[in-house]
Write a structure and sequence with these properties.
- By secondary structure, the protein is mainly α.
- It has a domain at 47-120.
- Helix content is 79%, strand content 0%.
- The protein has helices spanning 2-11, 14-37, 47-62, 65-81, 86-100, 104-117.
- The chain is elongated.
- The chain crosses the membrane at residues 20-38.
Protein backbone atom coordinates (compact mmCIF):
# COMPACT_ATOMS: atom_id res chain seq x y z
CA UNK A 1 0.00 0.00 0.00
CA UNK A 2 2.82 2.40 0.89
CA UNK A 3 4.48 1.72 -2.45
CA UNK A 4 1.28 2.65 -4.31
CA UNK A 5 1.12 5.97 -2.51
CA UNK A 6 4.72 6.69 -3.34
CA UNK A 7 4.14 5.80 -6.98
CA UNK A 8 1.08 8.07 -7.19
CA UNK A 9 2.86 10.98 -5.56
CA UNK A 10 5.67 10.66 -8.09
CA UNK A 11 3.21 10.63 -10.99
CA UNK A 12 2.50 14.34 -10.52
CA UNK A 13 5.55 16.48 -9.94
CA UNK A 14 5.38 18.71 -6.86
CA UNK A 15 5.06 21.98 -8.78
CA UNK A 16 2.23 20.74 -10.99
CA UNK A 17 0.39 19.27 -7.99
CA UNK A 18 0.66 22.56 -6.11
CA UNK A 19 -0.54 24.46 -9.17
CA UNK A 20 -3.51 22.11 -9.55
CA UNK A 21 -4.42 22.58 -5.86
CA UNK A 22 -4.23 26.37 -6.22
CA UNK A 23 -6.56 26.31 -9.25
CA UNK A 24 -8.99 23.95 -7.51
CA UNK A 25 -9.12 26.23 -4.43
CA UNK A 26 -9.62 29.27 -6.63
CA UNK A 27 -12.47 27.56 -8.48
CA UNK A 28 -14.15 26.59 -5.21
CA UNK A 29 -13.81 30.15 -3.92
CA UNK A 30 -15.29 31.63 -7.10
CA UNK A 31 -18.26 29.23 -7.04
CA UNK A 32 -18.83 29.95 -3.34
CA UNK A 33 -18.81 33.71 -3.91
CA UNK A 34 -21.15 33.36 -6.88
CA UNK A 35 -23.68 31.52 -4.72
CA UNK A 36 -23.26 34.02 -1.90
CA UNK A 37 -23.81 37.07 -4.10
CA UNK A 38 -26.27 35.49 -6.51
CA UNK A 39 -29.39 37.63 -6.42
CA UNK A 40 -32.40 35.90 -4.95
CA UNK A 41 -35.96 37.04 -4.89
CA UNK A 42 -37.10 38.57 -1.65
CA UNK A 43 -39.97 37.06 0.27
CA UNK A 44 -42.87 39.43 0.84
CA UNK A 45 -44.86 38.48 3.92
CA UNK A 46 -48.23 39.74 5.02
CA UNK A 47 -48.90 40.49 8.70
CA UNK A 48 -49.76 36.89 9.59
CA UNK A 49 -46.75 35.56 7.70
CA UNK A 50 -44.45 37.97 9.49
CA UNK A 51 -45.95 37.10 12.88
CA UNK A 52 -45.52 33.41 12.11
CA UNK A 53 -41.89 33.91 11.04
CA UNK A 54 -41.09 35.74 14.29
CA UNK A 55 -42.69 32.94 16.32
CA UNK A 56 -40.96 30.29 14.22
CA UNK A 57 -37.58 31.94 14.72
CA UNK A 58 -37.97 31.63 18.49
CA UNK A 59 -39.35 28.10 18.19
CA UNK A 60 -36.47 26.99 15.96
CA UNK A 61 -33.83 28.47 18.25
CA UNK A 62 -35.40 26.63 21.20
CA UNK A 63 -36.04 23.45 19.17
CA UNK A 64 -39.56 23.40 20.62
CA UNK A 65 -41.52 20.70 18.79
CA UNK A 66 -44.73 21.32 20.77
CA UNK A 67 -44.82 25.01 19.86
CA UNK A 68 -43.94 24.11 16.27
CA UNK A 69 -47.07 21.98 16.03
CA UNK A 70 -49.18 24.81 17.50
CA UNK A 71 -47.90 27.39 15.01
CA UNK A 72 -48.36 24.89 12.16
CA UNK A 73 -52.00 24.48 13.20
CA UNK A 74 -52.45 28.26 13.44
CA UNK A 75 -50.96 28.82 9.99
CA UNK A 76 -53.18 26.07 8.53
CA UNK A 77 -56.20 27.77 10.09
CA UNK A 78 -55.19 31.15 8.63
CA UNK A 79 -54.81 29.50 5.24
CA UNK A 80 -58.26 27.88 5.48
CA UNK A 81 -59.81 31.20 6.50
CA UNK A 82 -57.97 33.11 3.76
CA UNK A 83 -56.13 35.27 6.31
CA UNK A 84 -52.63 34.58 4.97
CA UNK A 85 -51.31 35.19 1.45
CA UNK A 86 -50.19 32.26 -0.66
CA UNK A 87 -46.58 33.49 -0.68
CA UNK A 88 -46.54 33.90 3.09
CA UNK A 89 -48.15 30.49 3.54
CA UNK A 90 -45.65 28.78 1.23
CA UNK A 91 -42.67 30.46 2.89
CA UNK A 92 -43.83 29.62 6.40
CA UNK A 93 -44.65 26.04 5.39
CA UNK A 94 -41.13 25.62 4.04
CA UNK A 95 -39.70 26.61 7.44
CA UNK A 96 -42.15 24.34 9.26
CA UNK A 97 -41.09 21.47 7.00
CA UNK A 98 -37.40 22.05 7.73
CA UNK A 99 -38.06 22.15 11.47
CA UNK A 100 -40.22 19.01 11.31
CA UNK A 101 -37.31 17.23 9.62
CA UNK A 102 -35.07 18.29 12.51
CA UNK A 103 -33.10 20.87 10.54
CA UNK A 104 -33.64 23.54 13.18
CA UNK A 105 -30.65 25.70 12.26
CA UNK A 106 -31.60 25.92 8.58
CA UNK A 107 -35.20 26.68 9.56
CA UNK A 108 -34.00 29.48 11.84
CA UNK A 109 -31.81 30.88 9.03
CA UNK A 110 -34.80 30.88 6.67
CA UNK A 111 -36.90 32.71 9.28
CA UNK A 112 -34.22 35.31 9.74
CA UNK A 113 -33.88 35.75 5.97
CA UNK A 114 -37.65 36.20 5.63
CA UNK A 115 -37.72 38.80 8.41
CA UNK A 116 -34.74 40.66 6.93
CA UNK A 117 -36.52 40.74 3.57
CA UNK A 118 -39.28 42.80 5.17
CA UNK A 119 -36.91 45.62 6.13
CA UNK A 120 -37.07 48.61 3.78
CA UNK A 121 -33.56 49.79 2.90
Amino acid sequence: MGETLMANSKAIPGDKRNEWIKWACLAIAVVGLAFYFFPRSKVVLDDQGYDASVALYRICNQKDMESLQKIAEQVAQWQTEGKISEQSYASVQQVIGLANEGDWSQAARECRRMMEDQVQR
